[in-house]
Amino acid sequence: MNKTISITSIIIKSRFKIFTNWYFDEDNKIAVILILLLLLTVVFFLNQEYQTQQETQIVRFLITLSLPIFISNLYLKSNIKENKFLLNFLDKNKLLAIKKIETILLSLIIFGFLVISELVFRIDTVLSISILSLEVFVLILISFFLPNFIKEKKYKTRNTKENLLWSTNFSNQKSLPVRSIVNREILFLWRVNKNLILKYVLNFSLINVVFMLFIINNNKEDFFVWAVFLQFIFLLNIVLHFPTNNNLKLANAIPCSSSSILKGEFIFWSILFLTHFLFILIAYSFFLSEINLLLTLVLFFVILFLLAYTLMIRLTYADNIGTRVLVFIMLGIPITIPFTLYNCYKKLKC
Amino acid sequence: MLEIKNLIKYYGQTKVLEKINLNIDKGLIVGLLGANGAGKTTLQNTIMNNLEFGGEILIDGIPNDEFLNKHRNKILYLSDTPFLYEYLTGLEFVKFVLDMQKIQYKEVQQKVDLLLKLFNLEDFKNHLIKEYSHGMKHKIALISILVQSPKILLLDEPVSGLDTMSIIALKKLLKSMANDGTTIIFSTHILDLVENLCDTIIILHDNNSTTHNEVNKMNKSDIEKIYLDLVGNEIDLILNKI
Questions:
Q1: Residue A24's Cα: distance from chain center in Å?
Q2: How far is B189 from A65, CA to CA, in rounded Å?
Q3: Most confident of A118-122, B188-192, B219-223
Q4: Which chain A residues contact residue B97 at CB under 8 A?
Q5: Is the distance from CB of B119 to CB of B164 less than 8 angstroms?
Q6: How much is the pLDDT for B167?
Q7: CA-closest candidate to residue A244, choices A224, A261, A225, A221
Q8: Helix, strand or coil, per DSSP, at residue A216
Q9: Which domain holds residue A248?
Q10: Cβ-defined contact of B87 to A85 (cutoff 8 Å)
Q11: Which candidate from A84, A91, A163 shows the least CB-CB separation from B68?
């Protein structure tokens, strides 16, 4: 334990040195000035009084919140290459222990910042901020447990699940098991995009806190349905932009595999959407009426339909992101839907 | 000293190393040769236990993971694209590595100064690494490794980007480290380096390995012939067609 703490202090010392070197570097003069200006602007907005007390509180809350989110995002980008470099000096368990200590320290800094903001800028939503502080703390903690956990398991999963998937002789196969598509997506998501996922989790948490504050402070419960809808539009956008290389590979290797790919992808993304939806319901359920809950449930089924539609576009135009986005936007003109559906069917049918 | 038994390594479906068996004695300088993608870096990474593998790697009779847990600072590895903190100065980076290895800077300060002088970095030691050229970056990473006294030193293309003087200096330094008992295994594509420096060469080809001892008694054309015989001697045929 002592050794871990002393190594952590060496790493933290080096981080401070890197920061001071960056700060005093001539090349970064403009960046430093910009950051100072930004901080001044932040302080200015924090001191501003708005028309209503609630508005003032919301603006203050948002600004106070943006900094921890920003720091967490930066910290999450801590790269794999550095971890590999540090593994020259430490074993995996020690590295994990160090990351945990660093995470706890960072969380404490963020927590301290939020408490000071509460005191200095008289933010009344003490409970909200405390909950949020806890949320940031837990999220950062998870963010470091997960990558390391995955790193430990990485080779095993690569050798088992992915091998199982790719060892299949595609050319002799008439169909592709749907389950393998789901497995592949999970693998791909964890292995390649874990930092991105955590970033989304943080950003969605932020969006939900904003929505919740808006609903509570303005007593506009009906906005909840819109809040859910907006979030799912963001999610659909992620689906649309998600890499499609593997789909192309599979579609080329196995004739008539598009239906399996589509089913597998739908199951995978539905599970993700459903999880997200359940979290929202749990978070909002305390102050929502039954009618709004029911409405949201109906909305969710509409979203599942939109998901299927998006996935179809994703597979049909797998090689061109521009077309995918354009066709998706065309959804705004409902008359285009049958044409899009027909085109997708024509391209995907065996 | 270093024993590798039936080493197997796959990347997904791709077989990289298959049943590699090696025995490397203390104080030897070993050159790893092979085409791009033959598994040179992979072999070094498996020794460092950075990758999962099949088979056994023993250091002083102990499995490498156990050995590394006990004496991590006794095996050092330098990648061909070493990680460096761009916003530390060269000297600060060396001090950071020494701190991590629990080596007091004062104890090795003289050695660090001499190495900086040897690699012509003395005037740049207080410059930020981001201002360094590719070769200078490689040199500072090398210095942070060479200042220590490892049992096994693994270098991935150590002369990449180095100037002629630095290559000569590095060769002499590696020889003296080997004389002091350090086992050095480095990968390279430069046969000149192998000819003058190595006691043994290991050629990785077709997922397998072939070891040639007493390389110091061979000249460059002998090594070239051995290499071409194993890796493929179609060069002349293709050249003739061109």
A1: 33
A2: 53
A3: B188-192
A4: 89
A5: no
A6: 92
A7: A261
A8: helix
A9: 172-350
A10: no
A11: A91
Would you say residue A14 lies in a domain? yes
Name the CATH topology of B1-71+152-163+182-242.
Rossmann fold (3.40.50)
Question: Residue A141: is its pLDDT beyond 90?
Answer: no
Q: Are residues A176 and A281 in the same domain?
A: yes
> What mean pLDDT comes out for the span B202-226?
79
Tens-digit pLDDT profile for residues B133-160: 999 999 999 999 999 988 999 999 999 8
pLDDT per position as a tens digit, A278-333: 888 887 776 677 787 888 888 888 899 999 999 999 888 887 788 888 888 888 78
Q: Does B76 touch chain A (CB under 8 A)?
A: yes
In this model, does residue B208 exceed pLDDT 90?
A: no
Position A187 in a domain: yes
Ranges B158-172, B192-206, B217-231, most confident: B158-172
- Report the complex ipTM: 0.81
How many domains does chain A fold into? 2
- The pair phi, psi for residue A125, each rounded to 5°, is -75, 65
Interface check B128 vs A, CB under 8 A: yes
Which residue ranges does chain B devote to CATH 3.40.50.300? 1-71+152-163+182-242
Question: SS3 string of chain B?
Answer: CEEEEEEEEEECCEEEEEEEEEEECCCCEEEEEECCCCCHHHHHHHHCCCCCCEEEEEECCEEHHHHHHHCHHHEEEECCCCCCCCCCEHHHHHHHHHHHCCCCHHHHHHHHHHHHHHCCCHHHCCCEHHHCCHHHHHHHHHHHHHCCCCCEEEEECCCCCCCHHHHHHHHHHHHHHHHCCCEEEEECCCHHHHHHHCCEEEEEECCEEEEECCHHHCCHHHHHHHHHHHHCCCHHHHHHHC
Query: How close A285 gets to chain B, by Cα (Å)?
Result: 45
Sign of the four-CA dihedral B61, B65, B69, B73: positive
pLDDT at A203 over 90: no
Contact B10/A at CB under 8 A: yes
pLDDT of residue A224: 79
Give the Å distances, CA to CA, from A259 to A149, A323, A325, A338, B169.
34, 21, 22, 19, 63
State whether A140 and A283 are in the same domain.
no
Residue at A332 is within a domain: yes
**Domain-located, residue A162:** no
